[in-house]
């Protein structure tokens, strides 16, 4: 048992999870090809996303460690408030995050709200109070019920309400001629404020500067670092869900901008912590992206976790929405089953068509996709124990929408 735990730890610690998971599956007698035969699936409905509603409040991710809450006023994680401390000053929809376990933010006997013991007798009125506040924010009833458990440790992961709320000058100051030292990554250490709609020149609606390349699940940023000098005029963004990894990439970019390796460089790359599977339309406009990269995504071997894969028929409709007609989607992995899964999803989707190999000759991105990311290097370094790297490129085809 200890040896098995050590092996699992070793495989994950060395980031050899792809190899490791497969190995463990074999050991446990689990099928190594868990995805079944996609060709057996029934015909998919044809549809195109024409418009998307963006959620304005984002929940479900812990931005702060357990025992702390995200103080929206200060933009920092704060220790949760103890009994008797006032919480009235926070908007009602945030109040459920503020008090320590066993307490809830509630007004009693006509006084201002403070952290008081959870009282089931008042749960209904508390719920109604939260409900009226939450409905206008678009929080689902299920989320509301979760909020009712006033002891939940999760805080709010900040998110732009729409592309109009994103100030790209904070991410690419060199291009917007407004130098800022402070890193803004949407992490606890380097938070971003999204206080309201940003002037069009800075949110990408007007002016020449818009993000055109997106690295989804950028990990430690190897692809961005490699592509930056190849396309110095293109703004490119990495989206990464892990807090510390995002901080690492942000600091890596900042160091290059400050001339860590000679001349200042990499002004055209940036990174944001977010869940790319959920919030792309909160950051990008219809038809904005020229290239999307999915390099060595997490494989999610188990069939029950298939919905977590970052390329699926449904998500491709969202990717098609934010991609420009003619734009290119690259995917690469060393997991053959996952490659086939991603290929099948793209082939089945009416808004994507495979780019034939002859058209990819001389594609400056392909080399970086298959060799420059940290995962690609890991596979290469496995030497004779290594795997092939599988990749494909698909073109976004068809019009943007009926309305153009
Ligand atoms: C196996 S790593 C690959 C990293 C990098 N692309 C490379 O090739 O080296 C997958 C990365 O995707 C990130 N990730 C997984 N799901 C994500 C999501 N929904 N949104 C953003 N990043 C995600 C993970 O945190 C992880 O860093």
Automatic annotation (TrEMBL):
Subcellular location as annotated: Nucleus
A Pfam family assignment: Methyltransf_4
GO cellular component, one term: tRNA methyltransferase complex
Residues reported in the UniProt entry to bind S-adenosyl-L-methionine: 217, 240-241, 275-276, 295, 373-375
Transmembrane segments: 310-332
UniProt keyword Lyase, yes or no: no
Keywords assigned: Membrane, Methyltransferase, Nucleus, RNA-binding, S-adenosyl-L-methionine, Signal, Transferase, Transmembrane, Transmembrane helix, tRNA processing, tRNA-binding
EC numbers, comma separated: 2.1.1.33
CDD domains given in the database record: AdoMet_MTases (cd02440)
Active site residues per record: 298
Recorded catalytic activity of this chain's protein: guanosine(46) in tRNA + S-adenosyl-L-methionine = N(7)-methylguanosine(46) in tRNA + S-adenosyl-L-homocysteine
Similarity annotation: Belongs to the class I-like SAM-binding methyltransferase superfamily. TrmB family.
Name by which UniProt lists this protein: tRNA (guanine-N(7)-)-methyltransferase
Organism (species): Symbiodinium natans
């Amino acid at each position: 048992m200890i040896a098995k735990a050590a092996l699992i730890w070793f495989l994950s610690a060395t980031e050899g999870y792809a190899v490791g998971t497969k190995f463990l599956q074999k050991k446990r007698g689990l099928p190594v090809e868990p995805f079944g035969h996609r060709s057996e699936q029934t015909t998919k409905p044809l549809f195109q996303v024409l418009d998307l509603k963006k959620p304005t409040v984002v929940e479900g991710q812990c931005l702060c460690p357990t025992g702390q809450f995200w103080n929206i006023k200060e933009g920092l994680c704060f220790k949760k408030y103890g009994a008797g401390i006032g919480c009235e000053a926070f908007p009602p929809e945030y109040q459920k995050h503020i008090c320590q376990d066993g307490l809830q933010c509630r007004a009693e006997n006509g006084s201002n709200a403070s952290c008081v013991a959870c009282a089931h007798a008042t749960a209904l009125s508390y719920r109604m109070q939260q409900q009226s506040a939450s409905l206008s924010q678009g929080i689902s009833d299920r989320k509301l019920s979760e909020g009712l458990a006033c002891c939940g440790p999760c805080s709010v992961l900040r998110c732009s309400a729409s592309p109009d709320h994103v100030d790209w000058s904070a991410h690419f100051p060199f291009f917007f001629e407004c130098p800022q030292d402070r890193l803004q990554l949407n992490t606890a250490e380097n938070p971003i404020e999204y206080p309201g709609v940003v002037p069009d020149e800075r949110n990408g609606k007007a002016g020449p500067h818009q993000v055109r390349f997106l690295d989804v699940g950028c990990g430690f940023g190897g692809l961005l670092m490699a592509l930056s000098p190849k396309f110095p005029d293109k703004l490119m963004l990495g989206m990464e869900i892990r807090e510390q990894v995002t901080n690492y990439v942000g600091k890596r970019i900042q160091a290059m901008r400050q001339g860590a390796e000679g001349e200042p460089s990499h002004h055209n790359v940036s990174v944001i912590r977010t869940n790319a599977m959920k919030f792309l339309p909160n950051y990008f406009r219809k038809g904005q992206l020229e290239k999307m990269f999915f390099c060595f995504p997490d494989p999610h071997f188990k069939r029950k976790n298939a919905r977590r894969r970052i390329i699926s028929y449904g998500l491709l409709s969202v990717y098609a929405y934010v991609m420009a007609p003619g734009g290119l989607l690259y995917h690469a992995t060393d997991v053959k089953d996952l490659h086939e899964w991603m290929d099948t999803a793209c082939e089945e989707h009416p808004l994507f068509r495979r780019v034939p190999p002859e058209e990819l000759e001389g594609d400056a991105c392909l080399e970086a996709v298959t060799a420059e990311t940290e995962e690609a290097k890991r596979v290469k370094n496995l030497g004779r124990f290594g795997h092939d790297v599988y990749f494909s490129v698909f073109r976004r085809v068809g019009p943007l929408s009926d309305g153009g």
